[in-house]
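User: What would this chain look like folded?
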Amino acid sequence: MPYYLKLFVSVLLLCSFYSFSYKNKKTTDASSGLAIYHFFHIRDTTNTGRIWEEDFQMAFSTHRSFYTSYTKQIQDSILKSKIEAAASAGSNQVNMGLFIPSTAENIITSASEKTVYVNKVFSENNYLIKEVMEKTNWKIEKETKTLLGYTCQMATGVCKGRKYTAWFTTDIPVSFGPWKLQGLPGLIMEAYDDNQRIRFTCTRLILGSPLPANISLQLPSDAIVTSHSDYNRMEKAYKESLGVGGYTGTETSIDKVTVLGEPQEKAPKKFMVNYPLELAN
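Assistant: Here's the prediction, encoded as structure tokens.
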């Protein structure tokens, strides 16, 4: 075979290889995957320097999503490793290290059922608090921007009592987003409220891969289905039976402080949540 013909065949095969690889990349199933979101929330408007920050993980398919704290998963995994290491060493002491507050509840959104389930564990029981999916009257705007390489379009709407600006991409054709934000013709990549005190930002996407072993889109089979009102009544009754009343562990104050024998001025009260994430169930 002449040299120039060999060269032509080699180049043709090389082009075919790259063309095949490119098509494989572009045809990755974008209707299922895993999204990591960074959550930012100023919960006390009198103390804006104190910010709640947490990472969340959302697994999704065309019909359902599962939203859970990624920060909690990592922290629980580290703690488990430390306990196992202490047990192996025959020690009854575990160095817990830095504890980061995280969200314990999970949110399961079912587009086919038009239902949102809030999954909580209380008194060693698994509960599913059932909510009718709120219809957000999104107004899709003309503005676009790029997030993680995806072209996203802006939309505005009211969800759970607050007005949000959301950026979604139709390249990932699912109607889900972080928390309880949903209902757009593409995955919500970023969302923030009008006052910029609440923000969700997608920092990583994994598409078309099997879900991690600890993540399932199925409803927990051992869960007790209930409502917000019934769950709140049960929680209140439990606390009253323990004699703790309405104390939740988040509102504390210090009335007297003594340093080196000298009384100090009354310390300021611990912050209160006056800018909650949700204004209505």
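DSSP finds three helices and 14 strands in the chain. If you want, I can go into more detail on any region.
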